[in-house]
Amino acid sequence: MSDKLKKTVNKRTQDDKFKGQENRLNETPSRKVNKPPGKKSSTSHQEVGGSSNAPSRQAGLAALARVIGNRNNLPNCSLVAQHPFVEANISKNDASVSKHQRSEEYPAEKGVFFTCPFLGTEILTKEEWKQKLTIFLNDLSKVEKSLASCLMIHSLNQSSESMKCIETLCTILQNIISNPLEEKFKKIRITNKVFQEKVFKTIGAVEFLESIGFVKQTMNSNYEENEDYYYVYPNNIPDCNHLEQMLDLLCNTEPITLELYRNIKILTPSEVLEKIEFPDEFFVRTPDEIKREQIRKTENLRDSQRLKTKSMREKEKNNKSLNYRYSLIRIRLPDGLYLQGTFGIYERLCVVKEFVRECIDDSIGSFKLTTAFGNHLTDADNEKTLDDLNLAPAVILIFISTTPYSANRSILKPRLLSNIK
User: Fold this and answer.
1) Contact 389, 377 (CB under 8 A)
2) What stretches of 188-286 show up as alpha helix (H) in DSSP?
3) Axis-axis angle for helices 3-12, 240-252 (nearest 10)
4) In this predicted model, what pLDDT tens digit does every residue of 23-46 receive, in sequence order?
5) How far is CA 411 from the centre of its chain?
6) Side-chain-facing half-sphere of 125: CA atoms under 13 Å
7) Is the peptide bond before 393 cis (omega within 30 degrees of 0)?
8) Among the four given CATH numbers 3.30.1490.190, 3.20.20.70, 3.10.20.90, 3.10.100.10, the one describing domain 262-298+323-420
């Protein structure tokens, strides 16, 4: 459980005094929305809402235990960690996953794979993880609807969509907190354009409103004869402390994020010569569009050799960066083997170096990497992204040890050598 989410848990039970001003739904709320960085890879489970009775807590434990598969990443909250039922299910799940995955392979040309430390040790595609995460959050919503709905908003929508939704929901809650006796702030017409565009279509948003007390009702308009649907907050005297806690929960919940699976492969020289067919996930645009562009570039190779201004080179580089999301990095080792891993194009070079360090024997000292054209990737390049260094969509780097080592054995760790076919 990350420190940031531990703070969220504490905030959930604290009396956080807040004073807001009246806002319209299409105005930016005065309260700051603390959206966590999208690339951060941790999240947490926290106990929120009113007190649960014993059967509800047992049901929650069962639901969580079915989908959380890794003890080391188990959220450290009283709802989950206190019960032995969870430990038994985690151990069983871990054994099942380990046995299953040892028999599986994940060819890079078949797709891009991810792990989710929060949900378990499985290796799945992004779409498969989204389905699994949806099931998890639906189970969680049966006992902790407010937390589950916040996780849905942050985790199951595009970042830009979730931010717009959060801002609008903050405006709704702020208006009730600041004007607890004003009935006009306690009802939202579902056909309202802003509500439809920013809230209603966002996964988890309606569930969040329901978790804090809003109910769906039909009401007659003062100016129209036809009935219309509204979400209505029925409490005449709102519990402002509870609404403030829900506001903090909404703003500070971290998303459940995925980690790109490196998909480590040890290749022989003959395997490296095989043509790489990139999976669809590598492309931002459609594969057909990219392949047509590659053919066009090949046909116009002579034109690409002409002298270009700096602005022309920058324009070509920027256009290329829009084509790919991932890069297949192959590092040629001194014994002729190749170490292969998958990276995001916005990951830094230092991450690639850390990857190499984790794969080579501990006895190997310092090393450096160069491109196949002899260009040295120095320490000054460590903070640059693979996109900045033009290391996409596939590239071969050369490993050069700068300290003596025994040439009679491979520099790879033994566990990786067993993966050679």
Assistant:
1) yes
2) 193-195, 205-211, 240-252, 269-272
3) 170
4) 555 554 444 455 444 333 333 333
5) 33
6) 13
7) yes
8) 3.10.20.90
Q: Could you tell me which residues come within 8 angstroms of residue 351 by beta carbon, excluding any fewer than 6 positions away? A: 343
pLDDT in tens, 217-259: 987 765 555 678 899 998 888 899 999 999 999 999 999 999 9
- Mean confidence (pLDDT) of the chain: 75
C-beta neighbour count of 261 within 10 angstroms = 16
Kindly report the backbone phi and psi dihedral angles of residue 297, in degrees, each rounded to the nearest multiple of 5, phi listed first. -65, -35
The one-letter amino acid at 96: S
Q: What share of the chain is helix, strand, coil (3-state, %, to 5)?
A: 45, 15, 40
Domains of the chain, residue spans: 113-259, 262-298+323-420
- C-alpha angle 283-288-294 in degrees, rounded to nearest 5: 80
- Residue 212 near residue 176, CB atoms below 8 Å: no
DSSP state of 385: B
Decide if domain 113-259 falls under CATH 1.20.140.10. Answer: no
> How many angstroms separate the Cα of 4 from the Cα of each of 242, 292, 356?
21, 46, 30
Q: Which residue has the higher pLDDT, 291 or 266?
A: 266
How many whole angstroms separate alpha carbon 399 and alpha carbon 319?
Answer: 30
**Whole-Å CA distances, 54 to 59, 61, 64, 143, 377:** 9, 11, 15, 11, 59
Q: Which amino acid is at 138?
A: N
Measured distance CA(234)–CA(216) in Å, rounded: 10
